[in-house]
């Protein structure tokens, strides 16, 4: 196992859940740059994220309380707001479900991405919105000034415009939208602790379903998918393909400004660190790669069998909030056996994939 940061011991205290699509290690690298065009957006983004991390703790406390019943819907109920490059949420309401396309491309992309995520969960798994009960989907665009991130804050999606030099508009990649909204699905199901291995599982689940949402929207089979997260996010000139690669963790980018992708693909490279809640954005590469291996072995449309197994575990009620990689692996083996039988290709693919990344799932 290798150390990713200068700290010698992993963090042990739990932290409030707050996820952004661009991980702190990238923003931290940019914040150290001597070039103001690099470090100023990164530093502002880190400051914004710190404020929202505190706000997310308050929202989490509210959202775990019993909620008033909603009428489940088979169609999305989307509302888009515009922050006007300020930091106030939700901003001004600029688009509702009943309206046609807007003049603002970011508004239209946000609307489309929310819809693609809603359609995926409904058609693939019969889930009505991210809470399973028709939750309205809200989003805010044009958040902050050159804000280099996007996040789910417990109530809505929030998109920055990017700095235009390293990152483009965060409404562009549908898998980024799917990733963040899947944090909402996890919030309403397993509620995985955002720390250590359970936090890395939280991140991985969002990457898995974010990728599947893109594949579903493009009607791709596993062998045609790129298995990249945020492939359309990096600006021209950046040395990289995306933020993360599920097919080959550690190869998504190698850029003088962003640094080199630190994700491991197996437990041999598991990173011990106290940064980023115990390396949740880094070590998620291990379960990410396990899912890719399952989907590739089974072939066809990855959401139909591999994704179904992962969804069964996420929503099955047996996944503990503090689950470790081995716990999740064991549940996926059980889920594959329960749904497809113990002697089928699905069970074999799941067992082999976890073994390949160095985890025993039996």
Helicity level: 40-55%
Principal-axis shape equals globular
Radius of gyration: 19 Å
User: What summary fits the major beta sheet?
Assistant: 5 strands, mixed
Structural class: alpha/beta
Spatial order of the strands forming the largest sheet: 3-2-4-6-5
The total strand number stands at: 11
Poorly predicted regions: 1-16, 56-69
Instruction: Please state roughly what percent of the residues sit in beta strands, choosing from under 5%, 5-15%, 15-25%, 25-35%, 35-45% or over 45%.
Output: 5-15%
Helix run count: 10
- Please identify the oligomeric state: single chain
Compressed to H and E, one letter per element, the order equals EHHEEHEEEHHEEEEEHHHHH
Overall mean pLDDT stands at: 88
Terminal CA distance reads 23 Å
Plain-language structure description:
The chain has a 5-stranded mixed sheet with strand order 3-2-4-6-5, covered by helices on one side. A two-stranded parallel sheet has the order 1-11. The chain starts with a strand and ends in a 6-residue tail after the last helix. With 362 residues, the chain is an alpha/beta fold. Helix 9 (325-340) packs antiparallel against helix 10 (345-356). It has 10 helices and 11 strands.
Provide the descriptors you would attach to this structure in a database record:
alpha/beta, 362 residues, 11 strands, five-stranded mixed β-sheet
Question: What is the gist of this entry?
Answer:
Helix content is about 45%, strand content about 10%.
Present the secondary structure layout.
Elements: E1 2-3, H1 24-31, H2 36-63, E2 78-82, E3 92-96, H3 105-125, E4 137-141, E5 150-152, E6 157-159, H4 174-188, H5 196-218, E7 228-229, E8 244-245, E9 254-255, E10 259-260, E11 271-272, H6 276-283, H7 285-298, H8 306-315, H9 325-340, H10 345-356
């Amino acid at each position: 196992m290798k150390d990713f940061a200068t700290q010698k011991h992993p963090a042990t205290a739990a932290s409030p859940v707050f996820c952004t699509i661009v991980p702190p290690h990238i923003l931290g690298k940019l914040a150290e740059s001597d070039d103001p065009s690099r470090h100023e957006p990164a530093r502002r983004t880190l400051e914004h994220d710190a404020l929202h991390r505190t706000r997310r703790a308050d929202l989490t406390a509210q959202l775990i309380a019993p909620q008033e019943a909603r009428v489940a819907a088979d169609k999305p109920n989307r509302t888009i707001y515009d922050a006007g490059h300020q930091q106030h949420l939700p901003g001004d309401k600029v688009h509702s479900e009943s309206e046609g396309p807007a003049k603002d491309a970011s508004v239209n992309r946000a609307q489309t991405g929310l819809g693609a995520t809603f359609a995926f969960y409904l058609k693939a798994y019969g889930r009505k919105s991210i809470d399973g009960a028709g939750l309205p989907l809200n989003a805010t665009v044009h958040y902050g000034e050159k804000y280099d991130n996007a996040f789910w804050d417990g109530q809505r999606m929030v998109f920055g415009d990017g700095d235009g030099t390293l990152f483009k508009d965060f409404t562009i990649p549908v898998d980024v939208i799917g990733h963040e909204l899947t944090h909402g699905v996890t919030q309403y199901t397993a509620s995985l602790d955002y720390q250590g291995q359970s936090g890395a599982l939280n991140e991985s689940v969002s990457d898995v379903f974010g990728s599947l949402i893109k594949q579903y929207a493009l009607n791709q089979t596993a062998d045609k998918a790129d298995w990249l997260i945020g492939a359309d996010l990096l600006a021209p000139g950046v040395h990289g393909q995306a933020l993360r690669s599920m097919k080959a963790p550690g190869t998504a980018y190698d850029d003088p400004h962003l640094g080199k992708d630190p994700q491991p693909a197996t437990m041999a490279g598991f990173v011990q660190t106290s940064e980023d809640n115990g390396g949740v954005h880094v070590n998620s590469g291990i379960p990410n790669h396990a899912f890719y291996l399952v989907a590739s072995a089974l072939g066809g449309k990855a959401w139909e069998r591999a994704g179904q197994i992962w969804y069964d575990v996420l929503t099955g009620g047996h996944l503990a909030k503090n689950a470790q990689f081995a716990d999740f692996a064991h549940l996926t083996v059980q889920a594959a056996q329960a749904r497809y039988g113990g002697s089928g290709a699905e069970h074999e693919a799941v067992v082999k994939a976890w073994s390949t990344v160095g985890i025993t799932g039996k």
